[in-house]
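writing this on my phone so excuse typos. first protein, seq and then structure
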Amino acid sequence: MSHELEQLRDAALSEIGGAGDEQTLEAARVRYLGRAGSISAWADRMKSLSKEEKPVVGKLLNEARTSVTAAIAEAADRLRAAKEARELADIDISLPGTAAELGSLHPLTQMLDRAISIFRRMGFALAEGPDVETEWHCFDALNTAPDHPARNEQDTFYLPDGRLLRTHTSTVQIRTMEKAPPPIRVIAPGAAYRRDEVDATHSAQFHQIEGLYVDEKVSIGDLKGTLEFFLHELFGAETQVRFRPHYFPFTEPSFEIDVKSKALKGGEKWLEMCGCGMVHPAVFEQVNSARGDTAYDPKKWSGFAFGLGMDRLAMILFGIPDLRYFAANDLRFLRQFA
């Protein structure tokens, strides 16, 4: 004659096998394997059994618990699969699906990535700094006179505490020299801010990559070779590059660069591209004063700096006529660069 545990196991397996929904299955699990379930109750009854009965009943208890647990798991899978099948039966697979649109990088981000990639190949490291700056980092350290127009409140965003939104990323160059002695070779991509009237070619916020290279015996030839290589990589090997003398307070001598390329819209027209020059000794002296040493002794070290407007480069490279398109969030425009 079978043991009571075997009878419980068989009854449980029969009930589980006939469960038609998840609620019935859960009720069977609680009835047999719950804390007060029929099979679970035998674990407490083991204490009152004789030594001869305990091994026999213990084995039967483990077998019953294992069998019922496995049956519940199998039934749960069966009910889940049946439910999914019913739900899928209502789906018309002949209907067209919903197309998923893939995003893409903004054209300015594409331009920044492309420029950074070229400079990284020449050994430039990335440097970052805050958008909200001190007047010293933005102007004084860069040999900019107190009466320079850029320091006027009509041209620059000043905050109540005297700080300002940086007007260029040259501030990152100063912070880099404050932290690290020469030699250094960095580029500083990021946003800059000026009080410009917004039109097709001007914006209150724009994007730059500024670069700085300081080492022993750095020459104008190094500056010229670096920027010519960058512009040839960006616009094509046939691009012509022209350096024109200019004035910047933080470089001496200073130059503006023009390019002409058949690959660009406008063909043989010279286009103004960026500013550059050899780092002014006064900038090194300001950095030394801030550091409290002579790490950037202008008699030992020389360097060059440059600044490129990413918005302008993107407009030239992609043939974009209006700067405002970059911030309009018009998908008709952005999809062209996907």
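second protein below, same order as before
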Amino acid sequence: MAVNLKTLTQNEDLLSGGHRACAGCTGSNILRQIMLTAGKDTVVGGATGCMEVVTTIFPYTAWRTSFIHSAFENCAATISGVETAFRSLKKHGDLPVQREKMNFIAFGGDGGTYDIGIQSLSGAMERGHNMLYVCYDNEAYMNTGIQRSSATPLGAHTSTAPAGSVKQGKEQNRKDLTRIMVAHNIPYVAQTTPYHWKDLATKVEKALAVDGPAFINILMPCTVGWHFDTAIGMDIAREAVETNFWPLFEVENGVYKINHKPKERLPIADWMKKQGRFKHLFKPGNEHLLERSQQHIDSEWSKLLKLEEMTQG
């Protein structure tokens, strides 16, 4: 599939201006890029979270397509129900306007996906609904006070895993939700970022084209929770890929493909230095946490390379 930027920019923008996202928010970019690719024949579900709150503060909405707000834990269940209703109405000829295909997309942050919503997400994927679930992963519960989630990386400072005299941020590595989704044996799973627009749009096209469930995990640098200047969100997303912190890859019917292999990989410390949530790691005595972070990233990258080699034969 070839995605053309000129064609995308000529599509109708289905997320209006005037929403209340923070200055420098990369999440609104994610939503716009996905909807420019998906088009108007799309039903969107939004779990409680940053992107739901800033786009649908009653009585206003930024969405120019059908939108359903779901609770934190059940967005995947809601959209799977809508997809089932569509199939039933179509089968019985009861659709008011006959359509051969509709897109069904559920959006959730890492709190509503990795943690609170994983049960309903797992169920929807296992049942095989023809839907796309998109996680915009900003690595904490940003909407409610920057609490740690299972997507928060090792050493990051959050309000519930603070850096101080006793502890130095989160003590665990982040959960690998993307590979958990691969384990559901669904047709399509991918990772991307808003900086890599062509990669993102191509993966959305692929995900919406498959017959069955698809999952895309998108890194969403957060200027508020990660503590970086509002102008550099896209650079933070780009460098996350160049350090192998957030590899660009896809898994089609169990076959892994890495979409970008950095020619000169950046050390993770260079990326962390630009984010206030990691500033304590550069104080004397915390060198072991930087080393542990680099070792974890190197180990995960090696695993990914082996999975690509093994599944491609």
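The mean pLDDT is 96. thats all i got for now
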